[in-house]
Design brief:
Layout: H1 8-27, E1 38-44, E2 50-53, E3 58-60, H2 61-65, E4 69-75, H3 82-97, E5 104-110, H4 118-128, E6 134-139, H5 144-151, E7 166-168, E8 174-177, H6 184-196
Parallel strand pairs: 4-5, 5-6
Antiparallel strand pairs: 1-8, 2-3, 2-6, 4-7, 7-8
Helix pairs in contact: 3-4, 3-6
């Protein structure tokens, strides 16, 4: 049996179609709210989760959040369903916000700490546009369940986590939970609102 080489024009069409679908999903209004989406009153401090950052440094969630306005998402690098969309959303939001919030921080936290070592986290970030303000981290495995519970982030299905964005104020407290797959404009607006407090 002979195989034909891939048709570059067909590949280009498929790539363009995939990009169009991803853009439509990213910019669409979220379909539903769950898991306490909205303002958190009063703002709540997260558990003291130990983290390994994408550059290999050891830290903890309190130190990473302190003194910055932070948008946090849960991901894992082997994810093929929701996480690539989440990465694209953050990539576009980082670009859209630019330098307008000087102390903005973007944080992608892995829910697969046994696999997602610093190299895997760096490669994942590189897929969506590297920014010095966007970091990735894996928690200590023992600290993941309390973090899940604090964020109210458990979901059914293969991904086992929501596609929400969690917003933290400069004191490191959780101030707001988004809907699943929030539009880029919403993320940017919330970051500006937290910065103005």
């Amino acid at each position: 049996m002979t195989t034909r080489p891939p048709d570059p024009s067909r590949r280009a069409i498929l790539t363009a179609a995939s990009a169009a679908v991803a853009t439509a999903i990213i910019d669409a209004a979220p379909a539903r709210a769950h898991n306490g989406a909205g303002v958190v009153q009063p703002p709540a401090p997260p558990p003291a989760a130990r983290l390994t950052l994408d550059d290999g440094r050891a830290s903890n969630l309190h130190d990473v959040l302190a003194g910055r306005v932070t948008a946090l998402q849960l991901i894992f690098t082997r994810c093929r369903a929701t996480c690539p969309i989440q990465g694209a959303i953050f990539g576009r939001a980082v670009q859209a916000l630019g330098d307008s919030v000087a102390d903005a921080r973007w944080l992608s936290v892995s829910i697969d700490p046994s696999y997602d070592d610093p190299g895997a986290l760096r490669a994942w970030l590189a897929r969506f546009g590297v920014s010095p303000r966007w970091r990735a981290a894996r928690p200590d495995p023992a600290d993941l369940p309390p973090l899940f519970d604090f964020l109210n982030a458990r979901a059914g299905g293969a991904d086992n986590h929501t596609a929400q964005v969690y917003f933290f104020d400069r004191a490191g407290n959780l101030a707001m939970r988004s809907l699943d797959f929030p539009p880029v404009a919403t993320i940017v607006r919330i970051m500006h609102g937290l910065s103005a407090r």
